[in-house]
Every structure is written in C-alpha cells, then in structure tokens.
Design a protein that fits this description.
alpha+beta, Butyryl-CoA Dehydrogenase, subunit A, domain 3, 4-stranded mixed sheet, 4-stranded antiparallel sheet, globular
C-alpha cells in the first residue's frame, strides 16, 4: 500500500509544519499557562485555510483528502495540541457532518462561514451522566410544531466558549433508545441556550472546554440535521473521522516529545558522557521512533480508507487506540530521559505528558476501542 503524499498533500503538510514551528511551538507554553489561545492565532490558522479543510470547495473550503488532513493534523499537534483539537473538532466532527448530512440551506448558511473561520463549530454528544454510553443521553427535544423545545445539559464541549454553531444530539423519542436520538444545529445565542464555565483541565489547558445548558430552549424546526431519529447514526459515522483526527494528534504529541528527548539526550552529560551514549537511553529512543512510525502508518491507513469511502471503523479504532497509547508511553519516556528537568514547566515534555493523557479518553476510551476492534474482527 503506497502512502506517498501527492504534491498538494505535501504542500498542506509543510504549511502546517511551518506554522507549528514558527508560531505554535513558541506560543504554546504561554498559552498553557494562560489557559487560552489568543484570537490572532485562530485568525492566522483561518487565513492559512485550516478551518476549511473538510469543507467542500464549492462552499469556500479546501475539501482536502483525508490522508492530507491527517498529515496536517499531526503537524499542528506537534506545535500545539490545544490549537489542533479546536481545528480537528471543527473540521471532522462539525463541518464534515454538515457537509455530509445537511440540507442545501444548512450548507449555504454554515459552511462558507466555517470555511473562513468566521464561525467555529462544536460537537455536543457527551453529557454529565453519559460519555462512553452515548446512547443513554437524557437531553430531550420536544416537537412543538413550529420549533423544538430542548432541555438538558451537555459536557466536555470543545470550542464551547467561542463556537457559533453546535451539533447537539438529543432524544426525540426516549422509548426508541438510540433510534430515538436526533441531531440539531444550534446557533450561539439561541433563546434558552447558555454556555457554562470553562473547565480547568490537566492537559490541553489552552483549549476551550465547556458545559452547555438548555432550559426550555426554542430551536427552529429547520435546525434538524438529517432525519428525526437519525442522530445516533450521524454521531457514530462522524466518530470514525474524529478518531483519525485524534489519532493524528497523538502521533503529533509523541513526535514532539521524541524530538525533545533526542535533542536533550545529545546535550545532557552524566558520568562524563552524553545521555545519548548510554545504551538504555538509546533503547528508549529506538522504541519511541519505532512506535511512532507504526502509529503514523496505522493513522494513514485509516485515513486512506476514509478518504476512499471505505468502511474503516476497525482501522480508525486501531489507529486511535495504538497512537494514544504510544503517545502516553513516548511522553513518559521523554520525561524520564529529562530526569528532574522533565518535571518542571521550563521543559516542554512536561506539557506533552499532560496533553497526551486525554488521547486515551476522548473520542472513545482505549477500552472502548478494544471492544470495537474485537466486535469487528469477530463479526
């Protein structure tokens, strides 16, 4: 299987790499401390086209291939995982869902503004009482004839504080279980809809994560994305692309930690020798390099299948599970190679270690990925 990037794919990846090296890496420590990314950084990302990657060209986006998208996501995460998670949620979970399931009017309303970065998208599936068990969500939407009346709460919403459009999954028929879940496109400022406080997180501290509250929120009937009762299928179908984006993020974090570990091992001296001269250090670096390359190939394979429209639930889960686990191991070893210096914020591996942890939790835990893969291989 040939994963050689085309000229246009390489240009996109290199643009993301340059942005990461020249802008994101330098700012990431400050943004982590401030727990926020400046508006001008989002504007720069928008000007480079990163918010339009999953938007079709007819609506002003780039409409890039899934493989090119994965390569770009890895590079952005190598610079700032907090910035990258905003971009990947906006693209793979929000814009891509509207492009795939939206009506003509919905596409015209949202996609051009999402492509330009004027409007940022968010994805609201999890709730305070349901995360992995997404089918048990309790937020409801009642059909009131000319509008939906929505009540409930959502949790862990990336981009929640500044998003303009939210994909909100609600129960329109409790008795039908997962077949009674629908998806609504909720605009910021809708009556009865409010955004809660920003979560104080271990990692990805600069990304914006919020709760959402719906108290007799009046949402237009035209906000329905897809069919009534078709929301769960939309959610699950988008999770394959979402998992590719998070798997790419994990590879990017791991690659950043590896690069720092190599540089430090070449410079730091102990017992009269550079750390890189010790075989135990060499073994750690060799394992890191091997695992990162293997994870990258799994991500690219899943992305290739996704881009060709081939079912890739198994491959996406494999990529997400493996990449997130090796990211955590790579960051652990990078901190270990740094010794005491790896435990202080002056050195970026401390931040990578915190950022990597959530990759085994969101977009489906490692345990859930194992169940998905087992289900797929057992039939």
């Amino acid at each position: 299987m040939d994963f050689e990037l085309t000229e246009s794919m390489t240009m996109l990846r290199d643009a993301a790499r340059t942005f990461a090296d020249k802008r994101l890496k330098a700012g990431a420590p400050e943004w982590d401390e401030a727990e926020a990314i400046p508006d001008e950084v989002y504007k720069e990302a928008a000007e480079l086209g990163f918010f339009g990657l999953s938007v079709p060209e007819e609506f002003g986006g780039l409409g890039v291939d899934a493989l090119a998208y994965a390569a770009a996501m890895e590079e952005l995460a190598r610079g700032s995982a907090s910035l990258q998670v905003c971009v990947t949620v906006h693209n793979s979970l929000a814009a891509a869902a509207i492009a795939k399931h939206g009506t003509g009017e919905q596409k015209k309303k949202y996609l051009p503004k999402m492509a330009s970065g004027e409007w940022i998208g968010a994805y609201s599936l999890s709730e305070p009482g349901s995360g992995t068990d997404a089918a048990s969500l309790t937020t409801t939407a009642e059909d009131k004839g000319d509008h939906w009346l929505v009540n409930g709460a959502k949790a862990w919403v990336t981009n929640g504080g500044f998003a303009s459009v939210f994909l909100v999954f609600v129960s329109t028929n409790k008795a039908a279980g997962s077949r009674g879940i629908s998806c609504l496109l909720v605009d910021k400022g809708a009556p009865g809809f409010s955004v809660g406080k920003k979560e104080k997180k271990m990692g990805l501290r600069a990304s914006d994560t919020r709760e959402l509250a719906f108290v007799s929120a009046k949402i237009p009937k035209s906000a329905l994305l897809g069919a009534v009762g078709g929301g769960f299928k939309i959610a699950m179908s988008q999770l394959d692309s979402g998992r590719v984006g998070i798997a790419a993020q994990a590879v990017g974090i791991a690659q950043a930690a590896f690069e720092e570990a190599v540089a430090y091992a070449k410079e730091r001296r102990q017992f009269g020798k550079r750390l890189a001269e010790f075989q135990l250090t060499q073994a750690k670096l060799a394992d890191m390099a091997t695992n990162i390359e293997a994870a990258r190939l799994l991500v690219w394979r899943a992305a290739d299948l996704l881009g060709r429209g081939v079912k890739c639930t198994k491959e996406a889960s494999m990529a997400k599970s493996f990449a997130s686990r090796i990211a955590n191991k790579a960051c652990f070893d990078a901190v270990q190679i740094h010794g005491g210096n790896g435990f202080v914020r002056e050195f970026p591996v401390e931040r990578y270690y915190r950022d990597a942890r959530v990759t085994e939790i969101y977009e489906g835990t490692t345990e859930i990925q194992s169940l998905i893969v087992a289900r797929e291989v057992l039939g």
